[in-house]
Amino acid sequence: MPDQSGLSEAVLYVCTTCRASGDASTRTAGARLLTALRDQAADMAPELRVEGIPCLSVCKRPCTVAVASPGRWTYVYGDLDADASAATILAGIGLYAGTEDGIVPWRERPEAFRKGVVARIPPLASAQPDTDAS
Amino acid sequence: MPDQSGLSEAVLYVCTTCRASGDASTRTAGARLLTALRDQAADMAPELRVEGIPCLSVCKRPCTVAVASPGRWTYVYGDLDADASAATILAGIGLYAGTEDGIVPWRERPEAFRKGVVARIPPLASAQPDTDAS
């Protein structure tokens, strides 16, 4: 995994309400994903803060996570498999945390992030008063 | 409009790349929305920072905006009309800026925000180390 110096600044939010279509499990898919992420983060990314959140308002694309970090873009991802995607998510966040601005080159992103991206939001501090021409 | 004391802290990001389906205009729908928002914000919300952003990665739901503010939730909205929604967006952000945490009661939100919500992300500072049960 690449430089993880930024991992301790990052937060991984996991929607705990997300329920996968047709899933009859007692625990929501989102709650299972949170557990899997915490279990695997203990080995793969112990510095990372992993938080369960009641709702990220991406209800049509379970499971959903968001990653944020001071000075970096925030990314929201959906369509994530509750039982199989934890390692992929943590690997992707390792790449994210290794960048200055949170933007990982497209081809280096895990396929689950490329296909599942829901939105990205600039870092709050980055005032760009006039980007009309961009 | 409600208490706008928080408007000067908020930033409204507007995707300038968003192109509406079937729209043959030379300027993208997103660029037109940015202009409309800036024009109307001059009267309705002069304290608000309005920034054009090349892409918010919500490409399937043009036009797209995001609103962020220190200590408040960030919201991303899509499906916004480039030519008719500026006043509605600014009214909704006036409500947002009047709250402590950015969460406007559901029934008070503009219909365009209720239908167009793409995602919401907690404020970065709000550490909630263990919300497993939420």
UniProtKB/TrEMBL annotation, chains A, B:
<dbReference type="Pfam" id="PF07845">
    <property type="entry name" value="DUF1636"/>
</dbReference>
<dbReference type="InterPro" id="IPR012863">
    <property type="entry name" value="DUF1636"/>
</dbReference>
<protein>
    <submittedName>
        <fullName>Metal-binding protein</fullName>
    </submittedName>
</protein>
